[in-house]
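Example record used in the benchmark description.
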Amino acid sequence: MNAHSTVRKQFFRYVSQNILGMIGVSAYILADTFFIAQAQGADGIAALNLVLPVYSLIFALGAMLATGAATRFALERHEGKHADGYLAEALTWAGILSVPFILLGIFSAEGIVRLVIFFSYLALVSRMKDIQRTFMYHGAEHKCINCIEHGLELNVENVRISSREHKRCGTSFLFIVMFISIVFIMVFSIPLFMVIHVNTSFWRIVLRLLLLPLIAGVSYEFIRLAGTSESQIVSILSRPGMMLQHLTTKEPDDSMIEVAIASVEAVFDWKKFENEQFGTHYELDQPKEDAEKEANAVPEVTASRA
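Model output (structure tokens):
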């Protein structure tokens, strides 16, 4: 009986807080409606009625993420497991889901159209058989780099178990460029056009051309930072681009992994890198130039003795 009473008290305590919160939000909307009606009249009320369903959708998505993440966090912590990742995932998804609403409010349809075209293009080309094979090689490349950067020996077994996501991927760079360009154009265009009072297609093109070096530079520096930083903030900001890599990378077969390993070994001394970074003791391969010099030096010594 005591247990049921305790559960009932906790239930009514939490439910009452939610009810009070909803009453507070309703009172805020009522007051906002009154002031909008006084200032804008019937047009303002009509616009508000159109916006309220969108507001309800945003509120529902936020409540769903927060409740789910908090529940999983509490359960995992109660079992003594590491649960900090749930907060990062909730913030990441909240950021991803907020982007369309932010762009819709700031840029009307322009930012949304850019993202839709970009994502649609990747989704469509990833269904082509030849492109799927290319993306499998792309995944093999990522796996090789992750294998090396985690201090593992570069072989098929270790590459196979490595992740195909990488923070310095070109896919992430494209996403970062697109996102930063939208933000920068917003930040610079509003005050500029307020000063010169000209907002034409010509000046918008000029602004984009002038911002191009800045956008490319900031995007490059962010990708470079993401590849070396262990910051939780950088990881959260990098997450959308890494999730997008699930469209541009596929799981490779062993033959593709062997090709990727051969390609890496042709341009990069991974043994030397791991010896320096992880303290391993791989025997370094002798450079081809030195081997050829030693091979050519033997006949010369023999000839001089003769």
